[in-house]
Amino acid sequence: MDRNGAVNASIIRDMKSLENFHGLILPGVGNFDPAIISIREDKEMLVAAIKSKMPVLGICLGMEMLFNCSQEGTLEGLRIIDGQVLMLDKKKVKVPHMGWNSIQLVEHKWNVSKKTRIAESEIDRGSNMSGSRLLHRVGDNSWVYFVHSYRILPGKTERHIVVANSQYGDNKIPSVIEKGNVFGTQFHPEKSGPIGSQIIKNFLKVCSSTVIAKDK
Questions:
Q1: I need a labelling partner for 193 at 20 to 30 A (CA). Which of 100, 117, 215, 216 fits?
Q2: pLDDT grade, residue 8 (50/70/90)?
């Protein structure tokens, strides 16, 4: 985080000091049930922080935890976003999905008309092709690094939160979500080279520009 411009970034073990920070990243290593156990006592503090507009970025498992449940475990998820987490179909694709893959921006999120063509050179120079704050200056079909065996399936009322997908075999995997001040990536931006670095910088910019409501 420091190399991407973070100031005073810290690893915290609980949410009791959350009010001292401008944003939170839920990391993406581990298994669903142990991760839920580690955080569920602090769920109310996390929900309160999100309601106060604190930016939160879930990476891989960290994003999956935000949903109602996962086929990886038996415990209830954080239920911050409606939907579930499903295992990739082992009969159709190799599991885990590991390595580099491209992301496709969801067209209705673009800031450009369907009839407007933007030259690839403009995309390469960093044209803001997406309405997503997390994907600012990230072009369509950018390559990022995945390590996962599960994919999210947002509820019917939450389908609009998907701002980018990835194709893996016959599976269209939601790879980036954005709902207000809550963001998520199925891939690991910290392992995704310059594109991942840009995404982290975008999140840090959201953190630095967001006014978090304080309890009186």
A1: 117
A2: low
In-domain check, residue 214 = no
Candidates 6, 74, 68, 14; CA nearest to 41 is 14
Domain membership flag for residue 62: yes
- Domain with 124, as residue range(s), is 2-209
DSSP string, 38-73: HHGGGHHHHHHHHHTT--EEEETHHHHTTSSEETT-
Greatest Cα pair distance in the chain: 54
pTM: 0.84
Domain count, the chain: 1
Could you tell me if residue 215 is inside a domain?
no
DSSP codes joined into one string, 74-108: SS----SSSEEEEE--TTTS-SSEEEEEEEEE-GG
Residue 216 lies in a domain: no
- Catalytic residue positions? 60, 188, 190
pLDDT score, position 5: 52
**Residues written for the chain:** 216
Question: What is the rounded distance in angstroms from the CA atom of residue 121 to the CA atom of residue 100?
Answer: 22
Q: Classify 27 as helix, strand or coil.
A: coil
Q: What is the CATH number of the domain that holds 29?
A: 3.40.50.880
